[in-house]
C-alpha cells in the first residue's frame, strides 16, 4: 500500500527588509495540541473559568470559618435640641451637647449543621456631656459577651450548601479537563484544515502540470490529424480550469494558514511545516470499560447529582419558609459603667438577654401549598431529565467507542482506495497517451484519484477526532492507560 506523505512545506519564501529568510517551525500533531492547550483563546477561557470557580468555592469555605469584625463610632458629635417629657406629662425641648465613642470587637462563627451563629464579643463605650460650665465623662464596658442566634424549624441553606458547593467545584475541575480535551479536538480540526488546503494545492499543481503536458502533446497529434479538434479544445479547457482551481486553492491555503497561526498565536510570518499525522498504534477500546471510566470521571455525572440536590433543597425551602418558624437569640456576658476607664472594668455585673421569636401562619390563601407543589413538580422534572440524560449519556459513549474502533478499518480502506485510484489513473493516462481512450475517461480517472487522496486525509482526521472525543468524555488516556489529570495548583498560582 502506497503511503501518502502529507507534509506541509510552505511554498512562499518570504524575505525580510535585509533579505533574511524567515525562520521555519516543524510541528507534529501532538505538539500542535500541546501548544493549543497552552496558548489558544479557548484554553485561556477554560483556565479563567476554573480560577473563577476555585475562588467561588474558596469564598464559600471561608464563609464557614470564624469571622473577626470591628465596628465603632469615633467619634459621634451631637449638638442639638431634642424633645423631652416633663414629670407633669408635658413636652418640651432641651438642648444637648455630647460626644460619644464606641468600639466593638466580635468573633462570629456560622454553624453549618444548624444554620445558626455563635459569637464572642467585647466592647467599650464613652460619652462626654458638655454643660454650660461642666463636663462629665462616663464609660460603659462589656468585657465579654457570648451569644447565639439560632433559627428553629427554618430552612437551613448552609446544610445544603455544604453538600452542593464541593460537588460544584469538583464538577468545575472535571469540566476544565474536558475543555482542554475540547481544545485538542479544535486543534485537530485546524491541523487538518491546513493539511487539506496544502493537499488541494498539491493536487491542483499536479493537475496543471499534467494537463499542460497533455495539451502540448495533443497539439502535436492534432497537427498530424490523429485527434479531433474537440479533444484538443477539451484539453485546453481542462488546462484553463486547472489553473483557475490552483489559484483558488492557493487562496484557501493562505486563509487556512492564517487561521492556524492565529489559533496558536504564532508569528504570522513564520513558515510552518506539519508532519505526517498518520496514527502509528491502533487500539480497540472495550465499551463497558469506557463507560465505567465515563461514569467515574465525566462532569455530567456530578451535574446530575448536583441538580438533584438543588431540587431537593428548593423543596425543603418551600416547605419551611412559609411554615411555623422560630428564632432564638441569647446573650450572656458582663458589663459595668463608671466615670473612669479603670473603674469601668472592676466588679462587672452579669447581663443576660434571651429572646424567642415566633412566626405562625394562620391562613395564606394556599400560598405555601402552591409553592410546595411547584417545588415537588420541579423535583419530578429534574428526576425525569436526569434519568433520560443518564440513558442518553450511556448510549453516546457506546456509539463513540464503536465509531473509534471502526476507524482502524476505515483508515485501511481509505489508504487502499487511494493506492488503487492512483494506480488506476496512471494506467488510464498511459492508455490515453496510446490513443485508446477519450479525454472524458481521463477526466473521470483524474477526479477519482483526487477524491481518493482527500478521502484518505479525511479518514485520518476522523480517527483523531474520534480518539480525542472519547478522551474528553471518559477523561482517560487509552494509549497510556491512565486517567487524565492536571496540576491544579500550578494553574491556580
Task: Provide a count of the helices.
Answer: 9
DSSP E strands, number: 10
Q: State the end-to-end CA separation.
A: 51 Å
Low-confidence stretches: 1-21
| Approximate helicity band | 55-70%
Shape: elongated
Order of helices and strands, N to C?
EHHEEEEHHEHHEEHHEEH
What attributes characterize this protein structure?
56% helix; 493 residues; 10 strands; elongated; two-stranded parallel ribbon
What does this molecule look like?
It is a single chain. A hairpin with a 4-residue loop joins strand 4 and strand 5. Helix 3 packs antiparallel against helix 4 (229-264), helix 5 (287-297) packs across helix 7 and helix 7 packs antiparallel against helix 8 (439-474). By secondary structure, this protein is an alpha+beta fold. The chain is 56% helix and 22% strand.
Write the layout of secondary structure elements.
Layout: E1 24-27, H1 29-39, H2 41-63, E2 67-85, E3 91-111, E4 116-130, E5 135-152, H3 157-223, H4 229-264, E6 271-274, H5 287-297, H6 299-321, E7 325-338, E8 349-359, H7 367-433, H8 439-474, E9 476-477, E10 482-483, H9 488-491
Helix pairs in contact: 1-2, 1-3, 2-3, 3-4, 3-6, 3-8, 5-7, 6-7, 7-8
